[in-house]
Design goal:
Layout lengths: L1 H16 L20 H6 L8 E8 L6 E6 L5 E6 L16 H6 L3 H11 L12 E7 L9 E9 L7 E7 L2 E6 L2 E6 L9 E7 L12 E6 L5 E5 L4 E4 L5 E4 L3 E6 L7 E7 L2 E6 L5 E5 L9 E4 L20 H4 L10 H6 L9 E3 L3 E6 L12 E6 L8 E10 L2 E12 L3 E6 L5 E5 L11 E7 L2 H13 L9 H7 L5 H13 L3 H10 L3 H15 L20 H13 L6 H7 L5 H14 L5 H10 L5 H20 L15 H14 L13 H13 L6 H5 L9 H14 L2 H12 L5 H12 L23 H8 L2 H4 L4 H13 L6 H9 L5 H14 L4 H8 L5 H14 L4 H11 L2 H11 L5 H15 L8 H11 L2 H15 L3 H4 L9 H10 L10 E2 L2 E2 L9 H4 L2 H9 L11 E6 L4 E9 L3 E5 L5 E5 L3 E6 L14 H12 L12 E2 L1
Parallel strand pairs: 19-34
Antiparallel strand pairs: 1-26, 2-3, 3-4, 4-5, 6-7, 7-8, 8-9, 10-11, 11-14, 12-13, 14-15, 16-17, 17-18, 18-19, 20-21, 21-22, 22-23, 24-25, 25-26, 27-28, 29-30, 29-33, 30-31, 31-32
InterPro entries: 6-blade_b-propeller_TolB-like, ARM-like, ARM-type_fold, Cyt_c-like_dom, Cyt_c-like_dom_sf, DUF7133, Haem-bd_dom_put, Membrane-bound_put_N
Keywords: Heme, Iron, Metal-binding, Signal
Organism: Rubinisphaera italica
Length: 1120
């Protein structure tokens, strides 16, 4: 009976949905799931704000895999749909073999070239699927978008990214899809674009991470289009011949609505998916973390700002300067941050959320008064149960902001984007589950229960039903003070398009409405960007004395951006204003206007007001940079300080950052500064930006190397990068200087060890910096003389010295090496290194000691000795390796098995065959199975590979855990820990916490080894949906009465299921009353096992087994 009732229930829903009109492209028809009742059922699981209700507005098949959406003024919805995830839109984590190609790519063409170099056979597969734009329409105005058109598709070129940004304005539809910014128009009203234009091209130089695409399209207060890109970089030539090039980071851009005058507005971002302006025209974004224990950030996108991220940091296990120098922390978050955070970056306002995605600023109509000035941010975490929409506001703090009223607004839905319709309702798109898209998608509408709020939204929708072009100037002027920002802005833009200078000036100067005055100033901003109409700003000069500080600030902003030179004196005067926002815009204007006479005032402000205000400090730097750029343009020497030793620490720091931006070699003078912060900032700039003429000065730095790791790393690496004999001598001096820290000396030794290797990856920042390997005959002599000092140093330095001497084949050290090997008081690491060194430098003398160490009491020494013996005497190695397999520790057994594969002898093949037979008979410890398989496959022997095939077939039909059973035992816990915290492909710490380190998206794993056995741990990796961790397992129940109940399973017995509903209510439902149930899915990527080798999975399981005790670790400064 249950199945019959259930079928009738579903059939009713399907029949209802099947009446929806659906227009598909006859050429490209992706697989999309059919309509169902799931979208409506899911609402039961949402945690909805009090006084609000949620309705389903659209669902599959009319929407699938929605990334972003936008409204037009008729209330229609444009949706960015993606079908190319992992089918052309790739990710370095799945292709680590091409990482170096990606890191060195400078153009989109470079990326195309290396894709085809590695995978010419994939051209067809990687271009088979499209991203596209779907247009949804509610034709009968019943709240359901029943009609769907394919507005535009064909976004399937080899280098095409995810289409992730959409904006409609006045009939034009803008779309961001790597590598292009597009504009479309539907001229005949058939729901499909028939005109398309490429506005800009050259975005997405690198792959970096999937999802780090072009997005964030929004209309700025100046009437320009703003958009963003993640850290896939860009390299493009714009119409005036200038090149905008940063292939290594994310950025925000702006351009006119016709695509002209493209500007880089801000950079140094990782993945700023959406942008939003507040009522005063300030721009903000949520930027994602790097999966290394760092936190996502709420960022004020100040013009010209550098947020500090570079994509190559991702591939350093500790993320390099990003974590070491605490770039992602808010300003002065604690003492350590205050001490080490660079001055060239603009710190975030706060650490907020885990997966910032869609973002919108409340327009002013449709919600309770509490939400005036609030933002709504989608927090995407891969599964609905811990994702949703956050809300918060900004409060002025100096020239910047601080976060207030932060809370989870609407929760338990996997939101990708959020926006307000012209009806004042909040809409959001639901990805449904996972990370890759499951060919489903929904758009929901939240609306208030209070009629007055509904009515206010309806009135706005009604306004937009009449074209603004058809309205009188008087009516448009009245709209400049409307409660809804979209109405105000649309009126502003229309007035600007009519060149209504006189009317706008009248409002700006004489209106009693602050909002109307602000929009009038912005309207004049639009007009004055036309060179022949710049004089429109002349009538705004009296506003520099206005009592409203915001009005003064906006005038400074506008005249600076329009390069209105006649306002230079007023701008200088505004630098003395008591309001920090006025000073902020005035300082930026000084740079844009190149007001050299303001230099001393800017330097003074850096000391008096910029010291404790990072946003104001940034503006002052922008002012100085503009003045310096003006000097450079006339081939003058950049002189921002009359004397590099003059001024205060903070004024000199501002100058250093300005010189960094100018890439001026004069920055090297500040390496001799008396203030450590100035020295470190100079070193960062010279090294990280590779200011070539200043690099020798950094390499020969003679100051104190003990006060900053940031400095010493760069001094050491500068010597390595320059690679001359004098640089090697400097590194030896550092390594042997016992007054320096152990860390510094080890860094110098590491550089010497790599001297001739020609590594292409920078050791400090991870950037691709090719360095030709050198034979360096001088190095042997330089190092030989220093060995006695190094052999008296710490054991770690001794070990490095041993390795370096062996690498350089300094045979004189053989007696010392023999002493080390036999020294039972020495560490096993040092003894092993010495034994390996003997093997390299003493061909015959090493044999006796190698044979003796095969019988050592220390497993590591035995293992190393066997490896050397097998390489030296392969014909005699069989019995030695067999003995290790029979009697050694597990690690020795594993190593001996792998050694067998390197020997070309029938005896060793017989040993492997015997081991395989034991495996088939379940007579060999499971911890050796993977090693035997790998060794047998490496021999390419037909008999052995046949036995491996038989073994695999024995378990192929089993569940996923059985297929990976070789990973249950035998892993290396140390390697597993490195994998968990450092591996870019696995990214475990991205979502999981272990004793306070990592991300809070998934379950805390601090005690997972105590609570679960190996089988469960392995299953959670290779089949994450088999058992979802307690507190993350959601379920949707349908009772026999047709009622839908959703929640997290608290307890389940044979008789009852107890659920915790979204609002915290606990309900108990009898099993006999349940008609059907649909379990939620894990947010962990289902294919995570494909990103690792079986050996890595085995190591990871071994590490997870050790997690048996949760340690108390204080969380720091994180907004939840």
């Amino acid at each position: 009976m249950r199945s019959i009732v259930h079928c009738l229930f579903l059939t009713a829903i399907v029949l209802c949905c099947s009446t929806l009109a659906y227009s598909s492209d006859p050429e490209y028809q992706p697989k999309i799931e059919p309509s169902s009742n799931e979208g409506k059922q899911a609402i039961e699981s949402f945690r909805i704000p009090e006084g609000m209700q949620v309705e389903l507005a659209a669902a599959e098949p009319n929407v699938a895999n929605p990334v972003a959406f936008a409204f037009d003024e008729q209330g229609r919805i444009y949706v960015c749909e993606t079908f190319r995830q992992k089918q052309g839109v790739e990710d370095n984590r799945g292709h680590m073999y091409w990482l170096e190609d990606d890191l060195q790519a400078q153009t989109v063409a470079d990326r195309r070239q290396y894709m085809l170099k590695h995978h010419p056979e994939m051209l067809s597969a990687w271009t088979a699927q499209h991203d596209r734009i779907r247009l949804l329409e509610d034709e009968n105005k019943d709240g359901t978008y029943e009609t769907a058109y394919v507005y535009a598709d064909g976004f399937n070129d080899l280098v095409t990214g995810t289409g992730a940004g959409i904006l409609e304005f006045d009939g034009d539809v803008y779309y961001t899809c790597i590598p292009r910014l597009w504009k479309f128009e539907d001229t005949n009203g058939d729901g499909r674009a028939d005109e398309r234009e490429i506005l800009q091209d050259g975005f997405g130089v690198r792959f970096a991470f999937r999802g780090h695409d072009m997005h964030g399209l929004t209309l700025g207060p100046d009437g320009r289009i703003y958009f963003s890109i993640g850290d896939r970089g860009y390299n493009l030539i714009i119409e005036d011949g200038r090149v905008l090039k940063r292939p290594d980071t994310g950025a925000v851009f702006r351009c006119e609505r016709d695509g002209s005058n493209l500007e880089e507005f801000a950079y140094g971002l990782r993945n700023p998916q959406e942008l939003a302006f507040d009522d005063d025209g300030n721009l903000f974004t949520g930027d994602n973390n790097s999966d290394s224990g760092d936190k996502a950030r709420w960022v004020y996108v100040a013009e010209g700002s550098d947020s500090g991220w570079r994509m190559y940091y991702q591939y350093l296990s500790d993320r390099g300067p990003w974590n070491r120098e605490r770039i992602w922390y808010p300003f002065q978050a604690d003492e350590e941050t205050t001490a080490v955070q660079p001055a060239y970056t603009l710190p975030p306002i706060a650490n907020l959320g885990d997966g910032p995605s869609g973002l919108v600023s409340y327009y002013g109509v449709g919600l309770p008064d509490r939400y005036q000035g609030h933002f709504f941010l989608a927090d995407f975490r891969g599964q609905a149960s811990n994702s949703g929409i956050r809300s918060f506001a900004n409060k002025p703090k100096g020239a910047g902001f601080e976060l207030v009223d932060s809370h989870e607004y609407l929760w338990n839905t996997l939101v990708t984007d959020v926006d307000f319709g012209y009806d004042g309702r909040l809409y959001f798109s639901d990805w449904v589950n996972g990370w890759d898209g499951i060919q489903k998608g929904r758009i929901y509408r939240q609306q208030p229960e209070e009629d007055s709020l509904k009515q206010s939204g309806n009135e706005v929708a009604q306004i937009f039903q009449q074209a603004f072009a058809d309205r009188s100037v008087e009516e448009l002027i009245s709209m400049l003070s409307h409660a809804d920002r979209r109405v105000r802005q649309r009126a502003q833009i229309e007035l600007a398009s009519r060149n209504a200078q006189q009317e706008l000036v009248e409002v700006a100067i004489h209106s009693n409405e602050s909002r109307a005055r602000q929009h009038a100033i912005w309207g004049l901003w639009e007009i004055a960007r036309q060179p022949e109409k710049k004089s429109a700003l002349a009538k705004l000069m009296p506003l520099f004395q206005d009592p409203d500080a915001n009005i003064v600030a906006q005038v400074c902003r506008v005249v600076g951006d329009c390069r209105y030179q006649k306002a230079s004196q007023e701008i200088r005067g505004a630098l003395k204003h008591e309001n920090p926002r006025v000073v902020y815009y005035a300082a930026i204007a000084c740079g844009k206007l190149g007001i050299a006479s303001a230099k001393d005032e800017l330097l003074s402000l850096a000391t008096t007001r910029g010291k404790e205000d990072p946003v104001l400090r940034h503006a002052l730097v922008m002012g100085l940079t503009g003045i310096g750029a003006a000097q450079q343009s006339t081939e003058q020497t950049v002189e921002l300080l009359d004397d590099p030793k003059a001024g205060t620490r903070d004024s000199r720091l501002a100058v250093v950052v300005a010189l960094r931006r100018l890439r001026d070699s004069a920055i090297s003078q500040f390496l001799n500064d008396a203030e450590p912060k100035v020295v470190i900032e100079s070193a960062r700039a010279i090294h990280d930006e590779l200011i070539e003429f200043a690099m020798p000065a950094l390499a020969s730095y003679q100051g104190n190397l003990t006060f900053s790791e940031a400095l010493t790393r760069r001094v050491v690496n500068a010597n390595y990068l320059l690679g001359q004999q004098e640089n090697a001598e400097t590194l030896v001096q550092i390594a042997t200087n016992d007054r320096l820290s152990e860390t510094v000396r080890q860094q110098a030794m590491t550089a010497l060890l790599n001297w001739s290797s020609g590594s292409n990856i920078d050791a400090v920042i991870g950037k691709y910096r090719p360095r030709t390997g050198q034979s360096a005959p001088y190095l042997k002599e330089i190092v030989s003389g220093s060995l006695p000092d190094l052999f008296r140093a710490s054991e770690k330095l001794q070990k490095q010295a041993v390795e370096l001497a062996a690498l350089l084949e300094i045979s004189d050290i053989a007696p010392q090496m023999m002493e080390y090997v036999d020294d039972e008081k020495a560490s096993v690491d040092l003894r092993v290194s010495a034994l390996l060194a003997l093997d390299q430098i003493a061909t015959k003398k090493a044999d006796p000691i190698v044979k003796r160490m095969i019988s050592s009491e220390l497993p590591e020494l035995r293992k190393t000795a066997r490896k050397i013996f097998a390489a030296r005497h392969p014909a005699e190695a069989g019995p030695v390796l067999q003995a290790a397999i029979d009697e050694g520790t597990l690690a020795e057994q594993q190593d001996a098995i792998h050694q067998l594969a390197r020997l070309d002898a029938k005896m060793t093949q017989q040993i492997l065959a015997d081991l395989l037979q034991k495996m088939l008979a379940d007579q060999l410890p499971l911890g050796l199975h993977l090693d035997v398989i790998q060794a047998a496959e490496a021999t390419q022997d037909q008999q052995l590979t046949g036995l491996v095939k038989s073994y695999n077939e024995k378990f192929e039909a089993g569940n996923p855990v059985e297929k990976f059973r070789v990973c249950l035992e035998g892993g290396n816990k140390t390697l597993g820990e490195e994998l968990f915290f450092g591996n870019a492909a696995a990214s475990c710490r991205r979502c999981h916490l272990v004793n306070g380190q990592g991300g809070g998206v998934g379950p805390d794993l601090s005690e997972i080894g105590k609570k679960n056995e190996a089988h469960y741990l392995l299953e959670s990796i290779v089949d994450p949906n088999a058992k979802i961790a307690k507190g993350f397992e959601t379920v949707i129940l349908v009772t026999i009465e047709g009622k839908i109940v959703s929640g997290i399973i608290k307890e389940e017995t044979d008789d009852f299921i107890t659920l915790v509903k979204p609002m915290g209510e606990i309900v108990q439902i009898a099993q006999d009353d349940i008609e059907d149930q649909a379990p939620g899915k894990s947010g962990m990527p289902a294919d995570i096992a494909n990103q690792m080798t079986k050996a890595q999975i085995r190591d990871l399981v071994a590490y997870l087994k050790t997690l048996t005790e949760k340690k108390n670790v204080e969380a720091h400064g994180i907004e939840e």
